[in-house]
Amino acid sequence: MNVLGMDIGAGTIKYGVFSKELRPLFSAEEKTAGSYPALKIQIFDIITGLKKAHDLRASGIGIPGFISRDERTIEISPNMLFLNGMALEKEIAASLDLPLQMENDANAAALGEFLSLNEPRPASFVHLTLGSGIGSGIILGDRIWHGACGFAAELGHLLVNSQGRACGCGNLGCAETESSEAGIVASFQEFSGSTTAVSAKDVFQLWQAGVEPARRAFDRAGAYLGVLLSQLVYSLNPELITIGGGVAAAGEALLRPAREELSQRVIAKALACTRIEPARLGNNAGMTGAAALARELLP
């Protein structure tokens, strides 16, 4: 009795087959289709193919966007605009003879990271995924915290820079305009006047080589990450915050300025009871969490 966990990103779809105990059995990835009709076909083909090969009994899908809990529609997806207003869950489910649950991708990743922790797990937990944007999820009492309408934990859209850049959500100065991959690249290009670096990895390699604009770009991204963390500590004071995603692979280049900024903004006792640690599952967090949601649909 196996389940499918699928993590849909703007560039890549990662998916895996898991046992009922969430033991990984198979995984793969492919480039994400570039339109809504093509994406529906792609998802359907992946699920139907794996259903025959791996005895799937339920599917979970993580997808970027604000998902309404009542209408089950994607209200807005800042990094995949063709999803705006779409009822993808209903349309896919109508074509499948298989239980399906769709969740915000960062919520799914947070659940995956949470389940990877040793017991007893924290009663309050926040996970940040630093990638093309900033995804996030909150786990309270072993469950995803959705808020009243399903839009809770969009922490990447908290304001960190009142004079900041435009964000895909329509606001200015959101955390993901500064501390995501796009933010780091934009800062480097601003400081260097060069458009040669097109990824955070490029900028990190220049940071390792001692290039000054790269150092400034990571210092800026880290400082604004510290501003975001300070808001989380003061608003939620969770037991644990984990930080993952491709940008987090830069390690101390990003985390050192983040810790420095955080320590200046939060009183010591408030910070002392919130641990901040690297995430464990890396790119597998999203599909693991999606598989856990699929498991809830099993009889």
Secondary structure elements and their pairing?
Elements: E1 2-8, E2 12-18, E3 24-31, H1 36-54, E4 56-63, E5 66-67, E6 74-76, H2 88-95, E7 100-104, H3 105-116, E8 124-130, E9 134-140, E10 143-144, H4 176-179, H5 181-192, H6 200-208, H7 212-235, E11 240-244, H8 252-265, H9 268-272, E12 275-278, H10 285-295
Parallel strand pairs: 1-4, 4-7, 8-11, 11-12
Antiparallel strand pairs: 1-2, 2-3, 5-6, 8-9, 9-10
Helix pairs in contact: 3-10, 5-7, 6-7, 7-8
Structural features, described:
With 299 residues, this protein is an alpha/beta fold. The chain folds into 2 domains: 2-109 and 283-295, ATPase, nucleotide binding domain (Nucleotidyltransferase, domain 5), CATH 3.30.420.40; 120-279, ATPase, nucleotide binding domain (Nucleotidyltransferase, domain 5), CATH 3.30.420. It has 10 helices and 12 strands. The protein has helices at 36-54, 88-95, 105-116, 176-179, 181-192, 200-208, 212-235, 252-265, 268-272, 285-295, and strands at residues 2-8, 12-18, 24-31, 56-63, 66-67, 74-76, 100-104, 124-130, 134-140, 143-144, 240-244, 275-278. The strands form 3 sheets. Strands 3-2-1-4-7 form a 5-stranded mixed sheet. Strands 10-9-8-11-12 form a 5-stranded mixed sheet, with helices on one face. Strand 2 (12-18) and strand 3 form a beta hairpin. It is globular and about 55 Å long. 46% of the residues are buried.
